[in-house]
Recover the amino acids of this structure.
């Protein structure tokens, strides 16, 4: 019993004591109480031996995981020290022009407010300034490349003018339908003007006004579309040219395809060719989807004008081939989208959707020959003939004016000479003119005496009436 109670007492005492720490090697014990625990020791610590099965399990588990490809690894963080265009202008110690032509400015980050630093500040009413801000905002705020910003702005402007284009096409179709009648009246008006028949001119003008009012047409209304498009084109053209000639540093790497530097000319002259080609096609098919030959006016005159513009554009190729690529990008996008829009508006399904009248080819009258478009030589000869006719008419009018002035001067000199001779004859004593003048005065004297006597009697009668 005593032995059993002693064993129970020893067990209870051992249970109350805390567990003693495991004995550590001397080097590990010193490391635990080191003053600089973040330093590595000269010799790496040897881990305790593991069972033989553990490395095999670890290798099996790691082998089951897929190895990431180098392309899927995250990219290294961007350099936080990349300068901005504002920093280069304000803190580089260089002039603005030197900064804009430096290589550092090409990759520098740009903000919309940087336009003020490079001299593009504008007022509230500056249309050019607001267009510039909108174009630069597409690049800085939305992150678009410069070629995409130019194309996006062009498409946006053209879409805003779509309603005007559709209305112009409706009017052009109505005007083309009544154009033959208008041409007949214009021919009659020219004949009446040549015959100096003012009454017939008045009647023809009234008939012409009634015809236009009946069909709701006006020959000047188609000019509204080009009058609106031309200022927009020239404004945007000047903006892009100014940014390219500055030059804006980001434009040097904002190109597309074979043209990366938008401030330089196209080395292969592709953009100048496409710009002029699209311009000619737009004028041929019409910006509103109606061919130029089908609009109001004489078909022959319209064809000559078309040939003249085509010749002018082709001859201007040497002038635009050295334009900055940014300008030609805008020109190509603008005319290309206009051409695409005109082709779409010519489709019957689109016309039915927009409510546009579908015109049919008019049948020729019996004995009439189909219209044949003039060649470039015919246009040159017509222009030469028109120029010679204009010069001849101007010379004839000038000769008539000089002849009329000479006749007026001659008549004035003759009149002055006659007046001088008359005065000289009057001044001579005993001349016929003096006797006639004296006789006239003698004749007027009795008339003057009778008038005085009449007035005296009237005054006397008034006095007597006043007394009574």
């Amino acid at each position: 019993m005593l032995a059993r109670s002693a064993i129970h007492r020893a067990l209870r005492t051992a249970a109350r004591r805390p567990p003693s720490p495991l004995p550590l090697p001397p080097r590990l014990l010193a490391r635990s109480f080191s003053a600089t625990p973040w330093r590595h020791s000269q010799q790496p610590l040897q881990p305790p031996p593991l069972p033989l099965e553990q490395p095999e399990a670890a290798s099996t588990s790691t082998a089951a995981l897929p190895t990431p490809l180098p392309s899927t690894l995250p990219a290294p963080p961007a350099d936080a020290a990349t300068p901005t265009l504002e920093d280069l202008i304000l803190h580089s110690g260089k002039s603005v022009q030197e900064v804009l032509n430096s290589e550092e400015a090409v990759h520098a980050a740009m903000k919309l407010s940087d336009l003020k630093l490079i001299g593009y500040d504008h007022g509230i009413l500056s249309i050019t300034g607001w267009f510039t801000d909108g174009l630069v905002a597409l690049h800085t705020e939305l992150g678009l490349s410069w070629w995409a910003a130019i194309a996006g702005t062009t498409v946006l402007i053209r879409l805003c003018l779509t309603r005007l284009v559709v209305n112009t096409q409706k009017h052009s179709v109505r005007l083309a339908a009544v154009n033959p009648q208008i041409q007949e009246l214009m021919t009659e008006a020219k004949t009446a003007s040549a015959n100096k028949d003012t009454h017939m001119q008045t009647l023809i003008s009234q008939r012409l006004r009634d015809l236009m009012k009946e069909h709701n047409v006006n020959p000047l209304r188609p000019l509204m579309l080009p009058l609106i498009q031309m200022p927009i084109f020239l404004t945007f053209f000047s903006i892009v040219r100014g940014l390219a000639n500055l030059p804006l540093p980001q434009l040097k790497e904002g190109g597309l395809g074979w043209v990366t530097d938008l401030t330089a000319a196209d080395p292969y002259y592709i953009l100048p060719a496409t710009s002029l080609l699209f311009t000619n096609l737009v004028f041929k098919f019409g910006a509103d989807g109606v061919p130029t030959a089908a609009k109001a006016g004489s078909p022959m005159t319209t064809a000559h004008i078309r040939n003249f513009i085509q010749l002018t554009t082709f001859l201007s190729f040497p002038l635009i081939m050295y334009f900055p690529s940014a300008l030609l990008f805008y020109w190509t996008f603008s005319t290309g989208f206009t051409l695409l829009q005109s082709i779409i508006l010519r489709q019957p399904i689109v016309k039915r959707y927009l409510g546009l009248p579908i015109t049919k080819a008019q049948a020729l009258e019996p004995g009439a020959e189909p219209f044949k478009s003039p060649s470039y030589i015919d246009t040159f000869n017509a222009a030469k003939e028109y120029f010679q006719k204009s010069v001849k008419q101007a010379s004839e009018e000038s000769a008539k004016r000089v002849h009329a002035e000479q006749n007026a001067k001659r008549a004035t000199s003759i009149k002055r000479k006659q007046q001088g001779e008359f005065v000289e004859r009057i001044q001579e004593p005993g001349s016929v003119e003096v006797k006639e003048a004296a006789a006239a005065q003698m004749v007027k004297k009795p008339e003057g005496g009778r008038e005085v006597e009449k007035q005296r009697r009237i005054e006397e009668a008034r006095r007597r009436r006043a007394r009574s």
